[in-house]
Amino acid sequence: MQKKISLFKLLFLVFFLFFWKNIALGFSIENQNDSNLYLNKKNSNNFIFLKKNECFSFLKSPKNFFQKEQKEQKIIISNNNFIGFFYKNRFKIFYIVKSKDTLYSIAKNSGYNYYELSKFNSIKKPYKIIIGQKIWMGDILINENEHNFTILNSDNTILNDFSYKFIFQTPLGIKNFLTNNIKEMKICFFCNKEYKKNNVYLHKKLFNFSNKWFWPVKSKNVQYIYNDISDDKKIEISGFKGQPVFAAASGEVVCVTNSFQKYGQLIIIRHNKNYLSIYAFNNSILVKEKDIVDEKQQIATMGLSSDTHLPGLYFAIRYLGESINPLNVLPKINVHF
Q1: Which fold has domain 222-328?
Q2: Tell me, what is one Gene Ontology molecular-function annotation carried by this entry (predicted)?
């Protein structure tokens, strides 16, 4: 029972570390205040909505939304998943949290990870979100050079008369457009490739992850362990107490803790958007949270397994939050099972 509780705690921690923006809209539209509209101004122009081929219906602008900018914020679009507000030269796209949503599930379905969404929405640990909360998913930039949208009629025919200049270039154009029967029209965004390509933030590398993995311990004594109940896959590598433990790939240390008795001193490293590596049973820790580490950099020394009380390293890899067999990722060697 104690093992199951410890495993559950670890999975819960990994869940929040992995799964999951200048605007924090954590409560209702009516209760917005100016102080939380743009919490992360530095990267606001670089956060681009990644979903493609999204179509939206037009809505009327509610009162009191973006109170100071109400005169400029007039076009609102929505579909089953997102709502967008036209502001200056862009649609700011939000996801409205539904029952059973997590920051991870929202991020995964939208092409991000929890780290990006939490950063741009200023959502801090433990990344709690509530039903009805608006999660900023990025912007769709509108300009006359990109031709990245199409206006459709109620029968889904393209209305060629509606262009960037006709609708968005001037306040008069917006006003004239809003006087039409916009309820029968849809706007479809069919290409954000160029914006994604030029998106500085999304392509900024905090570390150089080359998808190359290395064994965290120099040993051929490896035991693969699979838990069919939790679908947890891991390996335990035998060695000697005090033996160096190395980072299996370059990345950022996102967790250092000794809160889980079963795992002893625990380290979790994040590798790009997709991977986490987990190191447990450590005797001493040589890194701290937010450290950037290189592959094969020593991060700890080996301690004792909580099960056998013999020297060993617990090692696991998660891909998009799912446990995967580390032996399918690490370089092939003649291991001794």
Answers
A1: Glucose Permease (Domain IIA) (2.70.70)
A2: metalloendopeptidase activity
